[in-house]
Amino acid sequence: MSMLTRLNTVQLSRTINVFICKIIVIASLAMPGVAFGTSSTLLTPENTQKIELAVWKYATDTPLLLETIDWFSNLTRGAQESAALAELSRLKFMQAQLEPDTNYRVRLFEDAVAIADQSLKLNVNDVRGLFWKSAAMGKIAEDSGVFNALRMLRPMENMLLRVVALDEHYENAGAHRALGRMYHKLPGFPISFGSNDKALMHLKRAHELFPQDVITRAFYAELLYDIGKKQEARYHAEFVLATPIADEDAREFAEYVSIAQTVVDKTGRIAVRLGQRTEQ
Length: 280
Fold this sequence. Notes:
The protein has 280 residues and is mainly alpha-helical. The chain has helices spanning 3-23, 25-28, 45-56, 62-76, 82-97, 102-122, 127-144, 146-167, 170-185, 196-209, 214-226, 230-242, 250-266, and strands at residues 270-273, 276-279.
């Protein structure tokens, strides 16, 4: 292996370690999802409400999550409804995130991928199946090392692009958000396929669709800072810091608050207020 190849591998490995563990989960940790039309008989309003509650409280009420998984696993046994199976994949994804043991955590994420695959066999264009398969693959890549991550990145990108094409609103524009973060944090050609231009396009669109989304605003702020738009970056970062965070979201959102705080710290000489941007 040449010195250049070794250096490129080390650089990419470090980059992957920084962002791959976040790139998909950040996409999925939005507020409870926007209603998604379906003709499914299993995803009744009552059942959907139970699932959303378990997902929202997964970090603070693990027993509720596990009870919901058991209940919905039984309900979907032998089911031929792609959307329902995709929701089961989503629940398994949440369970896996709480598992401290790496090997068992990977197995749980692999279960989530397998269930999503069942969903996609029934409907290759099921947005939920595509999204949660890519989410679980991202977490497997995190725990499996840089070369496994490299193998998964392009398929993940392709699935997320399909989600954008099918329903860009899903999970508070989660696919746009994940793609924006991916393009921002990956190295560019020839090492990988990172692109600040693509990152800006996707994060700007995510912000247009869901301007109150804290995760999008944090990532948007960091990207804007990195491309030299410091005043705009500060504006979005201050929005994040001013937004109340529910107890159920505190564990996950701490990372995004930290990103926003870093942007504010780096732009300490810029004063920005909602509706007003002025230099001090």
